[in-house]
Amino acid sequence: MSPSPAFVRGGRRAPTPGQPGMPAPASADQPPRRSARRPARRHLFQSAPGGGAGARRPSLGALRGRITALGGRVAAASAPQRDAVAVAWASVRRRVAPVTSMVSALGWLVIAGALVLGSVGWTRGWLESRTLALILTLLTLAAVGFTLGRWEYAAAIELGNQRVKIGDLALGRVEVRNASSRAAASSRVELPVGRNVAALRVPRLGAGEVHEEVFQVPARRRGVITVGPVRSVRTDPLGLLHRQRTWTEPVELFVHPSTVLLDTRAIGFLRDVEGVTTQNLSSSDVSFHALRDYVPGDDRRAIHWRTTARVGKLMVRQFEETMRSHLLLVLSLRPDDYVQDADFELAVSVLGSLGQAAIREERQLSVYTSAGKLEFPSAVGLLDALCRLERDPKARSLRELATEASRRVPGASMVSVIVGSAVEPAELRGAQLALPTEATTFALRCGLDLVAARRKASTLLVLDIASLTDLQRGLRTLR
């Protein structure tokens, strides 16, 4: 009988179940056996047997954890090498930077051209490229020869007046001395003044000889002008290399804002004999409040004898505590508060005039701007601090500025808010609400396009100032 086709495989007859070499059929309660030679394959993300149908995610998380841990170990192992390379690279850059800074853009172009033309000429045998590369190399070497040499100078900068007003002319002097024991060749000296650079020619100087140059600095606008440092410069005729050495430290020239001398009789709000009264009662002060009955322990010097004789019992004086007047000037640096640059300059001048008047009267003065509280030891120090003020696009709103000023400068008896003409009186009124209620507050709107006026925004007095002359006149209305 021919074998059944179901058991014929590859031309060989498959053993019949139950015969020798044929495994017994698996029962329903016994799992089938796997061959020991071929272990069961498991999918990469398949969990161990018995993990359940939803056990793939923990295996994937474990794999990710192993990869992360391996990456962390590799990073930790390579961190010392990376740090060493970074330190070595920084050291190389520090050493090479003084040399590379001497080369101008044209110099780098000439060096690159010499390298490219030389490599092309020698690899391809082009005589023209070799010739051009040689010419560029000679130009570079000639530039190095022009810039080599030693300097033995001693220099100094002197300003006739370190503080000037807008429109004045500041005078200064530069002195260069040959500090070597032999003659020094002619050289060029540069003097930076603000954003400009003045070039000075120093002639040939013998040992110990001095060359002096006088310069002028026009003070066109308020600010701080940096003068210097004096530096010697050597360069080649083509400008391929540029070598310099600094001899002095820079000095600062302060251009103070325009101010006006305010008549102390016109600023009665700054002149007080008794000070500003408070709500606190005291047994001894200068501001009389009322009479009250004598209490054991009161100072007998406070007894009012006339009233005592009239009423038949001891009566003592009671006073209100007073505090010394404290002026707080608040200046907004927000650009949107000013229509033009001249309005901001006028606001700074107004602040400087009020501050100088308060210091001259020996009153306590505080100045708070959008940049913070200004620190100054004297009237000159106040003007120096005002020279550094610039508008800040990130400045806070006027109400936030007033809130911060009242928090940082407590105890002010009078507050002046100085802004530009773009600020409406309603916004000034909102700033007043953020200031202490016991302080007397007034606002100054500064703008060249304004007409001098005096107005009220609820209980806030607002003065429109178009010039410093208007400031003198407007303050008289505050008496």
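That was protein one. Protein two is written in the same sequence-then-structure order:
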Amino acid sequence: MLHTRHQILSMLQSSAVTTGVSLLNDGPGHRIRIQYQRGRLDRLFEAVVLRRSFDWYRYRLNLYAQLGGIEMIVCAAHDTCVMLPVWCVSEAQVYNEGETSIPLTRLSDPAFRGSRAGHHLFIGALLSSQPAAFDVLTATSFPRSTRYRIQAKVRSYATLRPGNRLKVM
């Protein structure tokens, strides 16, 4: 897996010819500007570079980064549901808004939901208001304490936390 911002950007630049995504400039902080050329689509995007797409929620970028004009996420691993297009560098694939690399139907499996990938997918789907996630939360016989813990975690990712923010502006 790609671990650093430098590795993600070098992989993005090396695959620019085959994928149609090219780096135009490296902005301040974790912000970049990319050009996506695919078929008739030729558009500039303001993007943020993250290690995993779940970092969008972990750093609370869902609360303040869209005000700064962030239109796309460039990440090494796409592991959650985000309401922005996501360019996964390791898979060389663009995911549309709300699209995930793992189908949301897998959330009904308790073993998958208990894994890190399943948990990130579940929390991200709840934060992006996916009906499949709410169906799992209400239809599955969670113990009350587990349901309250999940709802508390969703509320915590939906509010700002004290401390320094990830620099994207």
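The CA atoms of residues 52 and 105 lie 21 Å apart. Keep this in mind for the problem set.
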